[in-house]
Design a protein that fits this description.
Blueprint lengths: L5 E5 L9 H12 L2 E5 L2 H10 L6 E2 L2 E2 L3 H25 L4 E5 L6 E5 L2 H4 L3 E6 L1 H9 L3 E5 L1 E4 L6 E3 L2 H12 L3 E5 L15 E3 H9 L5 H15 L4 E5 L11 E4 L7
Parallel strand pairs: 1-2, 1-11, 2-8, 5-8, 6-9, 11-13, 12-14
Antiparallel strand pairs: 3-4, 6-7, 9-10, 13-14
């Protein structure tokens, strides 16, 4: 029987959870076919400010100048990636850290230099690289920078949720888990929504209830489902141990005609 393929996106704040490494190690040993994609937004913003800049966002995605790319490489592919790899290895998960730029793991189409700067949307994933790591018994941990599909050799910043969704689709993943800073998608009263179809998700975004990073997660969830990923969930890190936690995202309400 083939192992369950799981793609997990870890936001920057989720990475500070004390139990994270042990949970990831346990989930890895249960699967053997898991890929981690991570963010690091708060640390990127902190370094931008320290260097005299100011982070700017559009639609939950970080606007990125040419100078910002070096900051992203330092923070995401350097500090954050290697810190996570070290923690996972110490917990017993044989992790290896890579960037989306490595072996053209992620090729992306620019969203528009005028509006977003050096930001892209994934259009091609080198799944052979991830599958090679799996065959070697290794857990890939991916920093979501990409190579431009239009201009090879040019890097693009990719939102971590978009990168995770694209990787999940390309791998034919059984599950995509988008780890949030909250327990899942919340309604206007701050209560957890157990299940949400994509039309309901759009309504939350249009009403201004799901904004910023959560809006981007809902867009990524939609893309993953349309691309054939079997299960998409937005939850806290505990969902790796308790599969029913958080918010299950579906293409249509179960039982709808």
């Amino acid at each position: 029987m083939e192992p369950m393929k799981r793609v997990v996106k870890l936001g920057g704040r989720a990475q500070s959870a004390e139990a994270l490494a042990a949970i990831i190690a346990s989930a890895w040993h249960a699967s053997g076919a898991m890929c981690i994609v991570h963010g690091g937004g708060d640390e990127i913003s902190a370094l931008q400010r320290k260097l005299g800049g100011e982070p700017r966002f559009a639609g939950g995605r970080r606007m990125t100048t040419a100078d910002d790319l070096d900051i992203l490489r330092m923070v995401l592919s350097g500090v954050v990636n290697k810190r996570l790899v070290s923690r996972f290895n110490a917990a017993g998960a044989p992790a290896v850290g890579i960037s989306g730029e490595d072996a053209n793991l992620i090729s992306a189409q620019p969203l528009g230099i005028a509006e977003f700067g050096y930001v892209g949307m994934p259009v091609r994933i080198n799944t052979e690289l991830i599958e090679t790591f799996w065959l070697a018994g290794l857990l890939p941990v991916v920093s979501p920078l990409a190579t431009s599909a239009e201009t090879p050799g040019t890097a693009l910043n990719v939102n971590g949720d978009d990168a995770a969704a694209a990787i999940a689709v390309a791998l034919g993943a059984d599950e995509l888990l988008l780890v949030a800073d909250v327990q899942g998608v919340l309604d206007s009263s701050g209560r957890l929504i157990d299940q949400l179809d994509v039309d309901e998700a759009r309504s939350l975004v249009a009403a201004g209830i799901a904004v910023g990073g959560m809006a981007a997660k809902l867009e990524a969830a939609h893309a993953a489902l349309v691309g054939g990923v079997r299960s998409v969930r937005i939850a806290d890190i505990g969902a790796l141990e308790e599969p029913e936690r958080g918010t299950l995202i579906t293409l249509a309400t179960v039982g709808a005609k």
